[in-house]
Amino acid sequence: MKRLTPNMAVADVAKSVHYYVENFGFEIAMVVSDDKSSIGDKVEEGKSYVWANLMHGEVGLMLQQIGSIKEDVGDFFARVGSSMTLYIEVADVDTLYESVKEKVEIYKDIDTTWYGMREFYVRDLDGYILAFAAKVQ
Question: Do domains 1-78 and 81-137 have the same CATH topology?
Fold first, then answer.
């Protein structure tokens, strides 16, 4: 195995792209228009998208519009969101927390755990829970 990149069903690809780019510094690797006629690397105002691939270092996220993912893979989920968390290790969790705490929904405040990690959790626009963490030095 080489890499794990979750493909997350979202209501609005452009809004979700904006959320991850603006709040967490992801970069757009690729976006696909809703009619699948164009592939690009930026989201244009007023245009709809069915899929995007975002990268931040070695961390990748794919965001796919609900109807599109059901069309491609099948109707395998009852609702958007999930029963898992995405656990992302970062270099400086405190700085990241300070930069986003007023802009995103904090699900669990920053804390140092019994297992030696400093972490906080957010709930994104579609209900996904993401943990951001760094090992306590």
Answer: no
Contact 61, 5 (CB under 8 A): yes
Q: What is the DSSP string of 50-66?
A: EEEEEEETTEEEEEEEH
Q: Which CATH architecture has domain 1-78?
A: 2-Layer Sandwich (3.30)
Its CATH class, for the domain covering 81-137, is: alpha beta
CA dihedral sign of residues 62, 130, 57, 2: negative
Model pTM?
0.92
Q: Where are the domains of the chain?
A: 1-78, 81-137
The conformation of residue 34, written as its DSSP 8-state character, comes to: T
pLDDT confidence band for 17 (50 / 70 / 90): very high
Q: What is the pLDDT of residues 34-90, one digit of tens each?
A: 999 889 999 999 999 999 999 999 999 999 999 999 898 888 887 888 888 999 999
What six digits make up the tokens of 31?
Answer: 């976006």
- Please give the Cα distance from 81 to 78 (Å, whole number): 9
The torsion angle over the Cα atoms of residues 57, 2, 76 and 62, rounded to 10 degrees, is 20
Distance from C-alpha of 64 to C-alpha of 37, rounded to nearest angstrom: 16
